[in-house]
Amino acid sequence: MSAPPSWLRAHPVGVLTWLLKPGHSVERALFEHLLVQDAAVATDVHELARRVGQTSAAVARALFALVRTESLAVHVESPSASVYRAGGLAQLQADLLELGRPGQKLVLASHDGFCMASVSCTRYEEEVLAASAGTRGGALQTHTLRFGLHRVDLVASEPIDRRSPALLHLGRRLLSFYGQQNCGENGL
């Protein structure tokens, strides 16, 4: 008797778990692969291994790690397709608006201090927060997302809701722009 089918989808917690880690790992490659998919992916370890250029055993271990860290949602029925706002980087502002709480200041800055998008900030605050991105300490929350040699800092005046679906949109948008890490077939 075979196991009933199941489907996998990236979970918002994974954005601030795996995209913060520098370097390559099977877990990150698998999370990135699932993050850029328009629909949930069937749980087929052999097919996933082929897509990320790894062994089935390595992918099985990575799946376990992704579930353990709540970076992956497993569905026993095919879930509805996720709604993804098209528009590339032009939608960063909308992603931050959805992610932020009322009054929360958010800035998304490139590694060189360029403000890519912000919410609830004056122009001066944008410049100061973008310039301070990547520094630790103070009352700010800084999350450094890494994409190969590129670094993007998400700076917040208050803790970010790690379960917000807006994180999936933001992570997917940045991953599509900066590219997935090179590992195996399909650029994964």
Number of helices: 7
CA(first)-CA(last) distance: 33 Å
Low-confidence stretches: 182-188
Q: Helicity, in percent? A: 25-40%
Mean pLDDT: 84
* Total strands: 7
Largest sheet geometry? 4 strands, antiparallel
What can you tell me about this protein's structure?
- With 188 residues, this protein is an alpha+beta fold.
- It has two domains: 7-82 and 182-187, no CATH class; 88-162, no CATH class.
- It is built from seven helices and seven strands, in the order E-H-H-E-H-H-E-H-E-E-H-E-E-H.
- The strands form two sheets. Strands 5-4-7-6 form a four-stranded antiparallel β-sheet, with helices on both faces. It has a three-stranded antiparallel β-sheet with strand order 2-1-3.
- A hairpin with a 4-residue loop joins strand 4 (106-110) and strand 5 (115-119).
- Mean pLDDT is 84; it is low at 182-188.
Summarize the structure.
Helices cover 36% and strands 18% of the residues. It has 7 helices and 7 strands; from the N terminus they run βααβααβαββαββα.
